[in-house]
TrEMBL record:
UniProt domain Formyl transferase N-terminal: residue ranges: 4-184
TM region(s), chain numbering: none
Name of the protein described by the UniProt record: Phosphoribosylglycinamide formyltransferase
UniProt gene name: purN
Residue(s) at site: Raises pKa of active site His: D147
Species this chain originates from: Dialister succinatiphilus YIT 11850
Length: 208
């Protein structure tokens, strides 16, 4: 099976991107990171890409006349890398519908909450303020709504009485990297199957 071409979208430090790249290098993932698209010229993930020897494209919204022109440029940049899979790794923008339609069921994201609860920004803060006892992270395919695509896998973590947004975020982050890598591994092995909003292929039932 040929290696999948993985394109990373990121806005910041790129710690999930680093985990995915490491998994391609050590052979856990049958894929290669072929590029990084970033919307901030000073983002740390660009230094990571340079260290990996991977090309990157920087497209900042402020450089475009409007959001539509920005989304068109993002799509053209993504197409230029010919990806089999696009991984949103701390990408802080909502993907344009043109991108989602161009790569159906080939864009995945990780969100620091147990979807469908606590969509959008500051999910950890939302969880603490809501007083929930369990939170976690969700890896999902990207749909046209906010954090609404088919869920691939979820990992739960406890929420303690003295948790802050920061302490909960740290606990969730410890689970984000391995969860994301497991999903990318399954995708690149052609193990994921989608029917409607249901994704199978990540887990098998325990033997009786």
């Amino acid at each position: 099976m040929s290696k999948k071409r993985i394109l990373i979208f990121a806005s910041g430090r790129g710690s999930n991107a680093e985990a995915i790249h490491e998994a391609t290098i050590d052979g856990r993932v049958n894929g290669t990171v072929v590029g990084v698209i970033c919307d901030h010229a000073d983002a740390q993930v660009l230094k990571r890409a340079e260290r990996w020897g991977v090309p990157s494209t920087v497209l900042e919204l402020k450089s475009f006349e409007n959001k539509s022109a920005f989304n068109d440029a993002i799509l053209e940049a993504a197409k230029s890398y010919q990806p089999d899979l696009i991984c949103l790794a701390g990408y802080m923008r909502i993907c344009g519908e043109n991108l989602i339609h161009a790569f159906p069921n080939r864009i995945i994201n990780i969100h620091p909450a147990l979807l469908p609860s606590f969509r959008g920004l500051h999910a950890q803060r939302q969880a603490v303020e809501a007083g929930v006892k369990v939170s976690g992270c969700t890896v999902h395919f990207v749909g046209t709504g906010l954090d609404d695509g088919p869920i691939i896998t979820q990992v739960a973590v406890p929420v303690y009485d003295d948790d802050t947004e920061a302490t909960l975020a740290d606990r969730i982050l410890q689970q984000e990297h391995p969860a994301y890598v497991r999903v990318v591994t399954a995708f690149c092995a052609d193990q994921l199957h989608i029917e409607g909003h249901h994704v199978s292929g990540m887990h098998s039932r325990p033997e009786k």
